[in-house]
């Protein structure tokens, strides 16, 4: 830490931060510093896919956040995992590769006034780093030109850093659920990432040869580790950003104060500071730095440097409602892992073949469908698992069962992330405000009925499914919405707390290029920048956003380091 001046400072070594460091440090003239509050990703359970069970709720890899008691969840508080290690949430998440729907990005283009967020404009950024198993040399002849157009990298096949593979196990009970979903009118699909993800099929995952493939492995090593212009600090937490007042008004971000565990170190950025700490930590860091809702900052004795009321607002998340069904005559993880011999067999299979339950993502089978026929598009996502338990982290049930978790893809409820004190070491208050709108409560009730309709189909009849949770006695809209509050939990997709938007949008924190309003040399590049949540898992869309940000920064670093006051259509014209 003897040298504390860099061209670019990246705060957060998670999904977006890892890619940005890779792209920016390719130019040997760019000195890049990565600051990560957690440790290196050298914990073995990070890399074994089933290890998420030992990473979530573990201070070695998780910030251990809790939500505020939530009225929509009948007063319950939820565990709110966020990755605290290199790779960030990509080191502890469900590994599901999901882009979302084309309509998500069309909406972003409207909300930001910038057509570069349209589906056909973000697709190249997804492809730029994707390495899809179907485009491997031994598979290439079997795929269509359309698939190559949607997934092909610049090379003849894949060739990007972000590996996408098929899962290495199947379950008869999940195959039966997929058949039942088709009988209920949901089409089969082998690709959830073509722009319209309606259908049922096995998820594809970010793994490589049966190991988790996180962004630290994909983008930091070995490339960045071998570059003399790249430096990385771990166990280093940013306490606040440094702002310099400019003649004529406004500020410029010049660096940050960093707590190393023993001392406070000041670092300086000659070009830009890139805040990539995630939808919870990025708004907290901004607020600690005097950037946020003025009344909130004053309440905690923090000088208001830039009154931006949208910092920490607009929190969106996917709330999953977990229905559990007992079954007969089916192999499930509950029964396989119920004995020492069963556990030993599972371990041996993984050791020899890198397959079996230890290689599986938290959810294997997915389905996208509509909560009612009047919906114009798929607005529900299912994560189906050959197991059941009372709550995450609890023991598996002692009976054979599967879980069908369903979430509203486009919730209208909005929450907040707000600091609780001026002490950077204190966790922020996270208030998702789930099910706080009548629309979300109706979708919750309807989604439980869709689950029952799927399970009642002939394909599952041989297994005699019995609804264990929530219970068939609950039938009315009111009952089902209340039950959703009792049994639903987060699926770990917080976004939107530093959202992009037009200059006329008073709640927009960023312009369409991730630049903080009114502050030069500062961007926020993470899921918090999403104006609205994507229709699916959020990790890979965050990676796409970082890819686009890197392109803009490297294309014209001088222009892009300045905060523009131009109208969005003018800004778009300037950056073509």
TrEMBL record:
Domain Glucose-methanol-choline oxidoreductase N-terminal as annotated: residue spans: 278-292
Superkingdom field: Bacteria
Keywords, alphabetical: FAD, Flavoprotein
UniProt-recorded name of the protein: GMC family oxidoreductase N-terminal domain-containing protein
Pfam families for this protein: GMC_oxred_C (PF05199), GMC_oxred_N (PF00732)
InterPro entries referenced in this protein's UniProt entry, alphabetically: FAD/NAD-bd_sf (IPR036188), GMC_OxRdtase (IPR012132), GMC_OxRdtase_N (IPR000172), GMC_OxRtase_C (IPR007867)
Organism name: Comamonas resistens
Matching PANTHER family: CHOLINE DEHYDROGENASE, MITOCHONDRIAL, GLUCOSE-METHANOL-CHOLINE GMC OXIDOREDUCTASE
Keyword Flavoprotein: yes
Co-factor requirement: FAD
Family the UniProt entry places it in: Belongs to the GMC oxidoreductase family.
């Amino acid at each position: 830490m003897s040298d504390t001046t860099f061209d670019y400072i990246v705060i957060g070594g998670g999904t977006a931060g890892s890619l940005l460091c890779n792209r920016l440090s390719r130019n040997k003239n760019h000195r890049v510093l990565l600051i990560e509050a957690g440790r290196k990703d050298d914990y073995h359970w990070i890399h074994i896919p089933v290890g998420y069970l030992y990473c979530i709720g573990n201070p070695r890899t998780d910030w251990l956040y809790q939500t505020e008691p939530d009225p929509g969840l009948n007063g319950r508080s939820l565990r709110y995992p966020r990755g605290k290690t290199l790779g960030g949430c990509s080191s502890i998440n469900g590994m599901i590769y999901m882009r979302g729907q084309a309509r998500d990005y069309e909406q972003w283009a409207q909300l930001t006034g910038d057509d570069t967020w349209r589906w056909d404009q973000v697709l190249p950024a997804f492809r730029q780093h994707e390495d899809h198993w179907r485009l491997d040399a031994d598979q290439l002849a079997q795929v269509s030109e359309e698939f190559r157009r949607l997934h092909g990298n610049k090379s003849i096949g894949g060739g990007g850093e972000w590996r996408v593979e098929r899962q290495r196990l199947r379950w008869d009970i999940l195959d039966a659920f997929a058949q039942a979903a088709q009988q209920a009118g949901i089409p089969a699909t082998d690709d959830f990432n073509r722009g319209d993800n309606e259908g049922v099929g096995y998820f594809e995952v970010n793994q490589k040869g049966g190991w988790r493939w996180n962004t630290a492995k994909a983008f930091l090593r070995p490339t960045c580790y071998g570059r003399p212009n790249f430096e990385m600090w771990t166990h280093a937490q940013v306490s606040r950003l440094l702002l310099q007042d400019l003649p004529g008004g406004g500020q410029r971000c010049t660096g940050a104060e960093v707590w190393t565990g023993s001392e406070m170190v000041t670092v300086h950025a000659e070009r830009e500071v890139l805040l990539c700490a995630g939808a919870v930590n990025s708004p907290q860091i901004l607020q600690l730095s005097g950037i946020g809702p003025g009344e909130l900052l004053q309440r905690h004795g923090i000088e208001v440097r830039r009154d931006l009321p949208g910092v920490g607002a607009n929190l969106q998340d996917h709330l999953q409602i977990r229905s559990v069904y007992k079954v007969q005559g089916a192999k499930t993880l509950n029964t396989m892992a119920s004995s020492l011999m069963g556990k030993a067999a599972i371990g041996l299979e993984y050791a020899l073949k890198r397959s079996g339950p230890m290689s599986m993502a938290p959810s294997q089978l997915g389905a996208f469908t509509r909560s009612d026929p009047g919906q114009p598009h798929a607005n529900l996502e299912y994560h189906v698992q050959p197991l059941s338990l009372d709550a995450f982290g609890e023991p598996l049930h002692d009976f054979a069962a599967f879980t069908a978790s369903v979430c509203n893809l486009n919730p209208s409820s909005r929450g907040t992330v707000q600091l609780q004190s001026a002490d950077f070491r204190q966790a922020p208050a996270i208030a998702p405000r789930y099910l706080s709108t009548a629309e979300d409560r109706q979708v919750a009730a309807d989604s439980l009925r869709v689950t029952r309709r799927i399970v009642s189909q002939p394909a599952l009849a041989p297994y005699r499914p019995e609804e264990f949770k929530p219970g068939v006695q609950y039938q009315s809209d009111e009952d089902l919405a209340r039950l959703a509050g009792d049994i639903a939990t987060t699926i770990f997709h917080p976004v939107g707390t530093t959202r992009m938007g037009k200059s006329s949008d008073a709640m927009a924190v960023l312009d369409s290029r991730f630049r903080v309003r009114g502050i030069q040399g500062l961007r926020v590049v993470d899921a918090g920048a999403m104006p609205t949540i994507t229709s699916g898992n959020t990790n890979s869309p965050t990676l796409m956003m970082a890819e686009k940000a890197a392109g803009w920064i490297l294309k014209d670093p001088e222009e892009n380091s300045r905060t523009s006051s131009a109208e969005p259509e003018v800004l778009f014209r300037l950056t073509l």
